[in-house]
Amino acid sequence: MKVLVINAGSSSLKYQLLDMENEAVMANGIVERIGETVGKLTHKAFPDTDNEKKVVKEEEIKDHKIGMHMVLDLITGSEAGVISDPKEIDAIGHRVVQGGEAFTSACVVDGPVKVAIADNNPLAPLHNPANLMGIEVAEELFPGTPNVAVFDTEFHSTMPKEAFLYALPYDYYKELRIRRYGFHGTSHKYVSRKVAECMGKKADEINVITVHLGNGCSMAAVEKGKCQDTSMGMTPLAGVMMGTRSGDIDPAIVAYIAENKGMSATEVDSVLNKQSGLKGVCGLNDMRDIHSAVENGDEMAKLALDMFAYDVKKYIGAYTAVLGSIDAIVFTAGIGENDDITRALICENLSGLGIDMDFDKNNGRKGEPTAVHTDASKVQVWVIPTNEELQIAQEAVELLK
Ligand code: ADP
């Protein structure tokens, strides 16, 4: 089966074509700056394992449909094509950010599913409408090919009420659907299953804390394969500190900033999402830049790094308590996979929890699943590259079998 995975954002569209016979990536790319005067399409094709062809196009890309058309032409064309007919694509898997309570698993898209996705738009106004648009463009360009929606929230739908409810008037949950939903679920699911495989266990035999540290950061407490708690909340602003997002703060701070800075609630929300986190503390949001700054003696960068590691460490403690005992911790995503310094800072002095990192094994970037704990460590520590596209494609295959 060949599966095209699409992640449509408001002005971008990422795609990956996978051959699920051997889980090989046939082509991938990104269409950016859709709707701007000059858009950009970067396409890579992998006709065989030792061969990569890259095409970059810079021109106006008016909308997602035109962008998708360009992708389709490249995938099937002579320059960097990997299939000869769009009909060779058996399914299209879509990343949808907010499934709300309506979706606890992936599903084949039909009319009612689209209505239910749109019903969640108010809960994810920046993402769901774009995800839905991606689905509609795919329906138009690939008539007859099944579309599968895979939700960022679905892995977290197993959280018990005490974990997902906020201590607010209960009516707000019923009326406004305010609750913890969690995000990055596809990644948490993928790495929590992969670590079980690496440990020679079944996912339902182990308790794992998954630590997804990218531009957005989230953690999950996974008990025997099922999510019990996760750090992001009703929106992806909550939890651990991130590149530009504050993570958890005292909620009273919102009104305090609004009053003292003369800002609206929406403006404060924007500060918390875009001007906070690592960037808010030291002016830099890319972890590589922060390490360079620390090396050059920048004390604010060091403080931001220490705050970041402290936050993650604190959640490891909390989730160890939630799970009673843990078998493994998994680091993933840009920082989790590549940043040995941050991983080491997080895992320092955790022997009391049975977590002993082997700092030599931890050294360096990890392009494949790697164990980084000492032989004596009660809890295994792993670095596992995430693969959300593969997880989405696997769910599509599973569903259409
Ligand atoms: P996104 O959430 O956008 O998918 P990524 O998972 O790609 O983000 O992660 C981006 C983060 O990973 C950035 O903070 C970046 O600095 C960090 N990162 C990538 N490579 C490295 C590296 N070699 N060392 C430290 N941090 C890295």
Automatic annotation (TrEMBL):
Catalytic residue positions: 152 (proton donor/acceptor)
NCBIfam families, A to Z: ackA (TIGR00016)
A cellular component term, taken from the record's GO annotations: cytoplasm
Co-factor note (free text): Mg(2+). Can also accept Mn(2+).
Catalytic activity reported: acetate + ATP = acetyl phosphate + ADP
Single GO MF annotation: ATP binding
Protein name per Swiss-Prot or TrEMBL: Acetate kinase
Annotated site, Transition state stabilizer, chain positions: 184, 245
Cofactor(s), by name: Mg(2+); Mn(2+)
InterPro entries to which the protein is assigned, alphabetical: Ac/propionate_kinase, Aliphatic_acid_kin_short-chain, Aliphatic_acid_kinase_CS, ATPase_NBD
Major location (coarse): cytoplasm
Gene3D superfamilies with a match to the protein in the record: 3.30.420.40
Gene: ackA
Residues involved in ATP binding: 14, 212-216, 286-288, 334-338
Organism: Desulfoluna spongiiphila
Residues reported to bind substrate: 95
Pathway as given in its UniProt record: Metabolic intermediate biosynthesis; acetyl-CoA biosynthesis; acetyl-CoA from acetate: step 1/2
